[in-house]
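pinging the channel bc i need a second pair of eyes. not urgent but kinda urgent?? the chain im working w is below, pasted from the shared doc
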Amino acid sequence: MVTQGSASQAAALPLAGKAALVTGGTLGIGRAIVEDLAASGAAVAFTYRRHKEEAEAIVDQLTKAGGRAVAYQADVSSFDDAQRVVGGTVETLGRLDILVNNAGMNWDGVVWKMSEEQWDRVIAVDLKGTFNYIRAAAPIFKEQGSGKIVNITSINGLRGKFGQSNYTAAKGGVIALTKTVARELGRYNVNVNAVAPGLIETEMVRQAPEKVREMALAEILLGRLGQPEEVAWVVTFLCSEKARHITGQVISVDGGQYL
């Protein structure tokens, strides 16, 4: 966690003085990203949709540890909500340097049984939601001549997955969007990358049928599920100056599952 200390200690933190916004920051990978960005010195805003108590607890936790944090209730599929959240982040934290598009959902079904609602909702959250926040933040990054964008996709957006035509289409779209925005914003010193997790041990995965976990483990070369913080570490690296010459890339964090 972020702790109060001397000016020299603060300066040693790789994201000291930066402000970050993370969508879907209360659970699993999103929470790990929020906490790791804060531990690296960033002031952090994050969104949530339903988990108000968890959001308030995270803000309290980070604040008590000497950091700055703010939570916004929002539906990432709402264009207007994205404008409100980004504007509120700049007003509250004084700036915006980092955007992490993490919020997502899945609603599985084979394509011949998938409803229009299933398709539309997943595309709206996972793909349009990513666009909404990039669209809101891009003018800020363009004007200030700097910025970091990291989009959370999935290895299933690279390879496809039975029963997930909506999810894989959305996550594949996020990859294409990442590469396009990297081209558009590169001249303004904005790095745009994606992180593609494999199966990560979140609460949702822990509640999945044992057969599903066993099948995933059989694919993973390292023989274990990934942990949320292992995704967060890569995100924080991409948001730091150590990654300043990396853009338009998709980095898998999957223990070799995609191979």
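so The longest helix spans residues 116-144. and DSSP finds ten helices and seven strands in the chain. — does that match what u expected or am i reading it wrong
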